[in-house]
Amino acid sequence: MITLTWPMGQLLKTLASFLSVLVRQVLYITPLFWFLELSENVAWRWMNGSWGWVYPESPYEWFSFSSLFLWAAAVTLLWALHHFWFYPRRVKLWQRLITSTVIGWMGEWFAGFIAAEVFHHPLQIWPNSQLVYVSFSALFFWLSDAILYHLLTMNVVELSPAYDLHLDEQTA
Fold it and tell me: How far is residue 105 from each of residues 23, 116, 137, 139, 146, measured CA to CA in Å?
């Protein structure tokens, strides 16, 4: 956790550590999340006969390369939640997953709303949803993203500091 009582050297060291982990996570996890999103949309079409969400300004309709930036923001958000909230407060895994799911889902709606209503360039539209920029079924997708994030950063690849392994053993 960062506090204002730290000396400047310790603050810079903590910030450098945070940013170095963030860069590794964004470079590694962002493309994986993007491909997962593509596969989820294809699976949605197989199950329901139409795309679950579309990208109105994309020539491909069912996917957009610009959504990579949204996934980079999502990874940044997940890492910031972990670094500044979950780890310092020793939040249990199931609470991390629920919190990450809800915040990611709300972030998707907010990003879609801001893009469409403020900047007049809609990112994603869920055609059959009352919420327009996200659907309640996306909660399932965000839960899978939160689980995948946890598995990738804690169990598969060394993408978070070693202290996380001890936390998982204590809170599981």
Answer: 23, 17, 10, 6, 11
CA distances from 63 to 39, 72, 113, 151 (A): 10, 16, 18, 25
Cβ atoms of residues 87 and 167 within 8 Å: yes
State the total domains in the chain. 1
Residue 1: inside a domain, yes or no?
A: no
Encode pLDDT of 6-32 as tens digits.
677 777 888 888 899 899 999 999 999
State how far the Cα of 161 lies from the Cα of 79, in Å rounded to an integer.
Answer: 11
Inside any domain, residue 149: yes
Angstrom distance (rounded) from CA 9 to CA 102: 35
Distance CA 43, CA 45 (A): 5
Say how many C-beta atoms besides its own lie within 10 A of residue 156's C-beta. 11
Q: Which two tokens stand for residue 33?
A: 């999340």
pLDDT digits (tens, 9 = 90+) for 73-123: 999 999 999 988 998 898 999 999 999 999 999 999 999 999 999 999 999
In a domain, 12, yes or no: no
Q: Residue 165: which domain range?
A: 29-171
Q: Is 19 part of a structural domain of the chain?
A: no
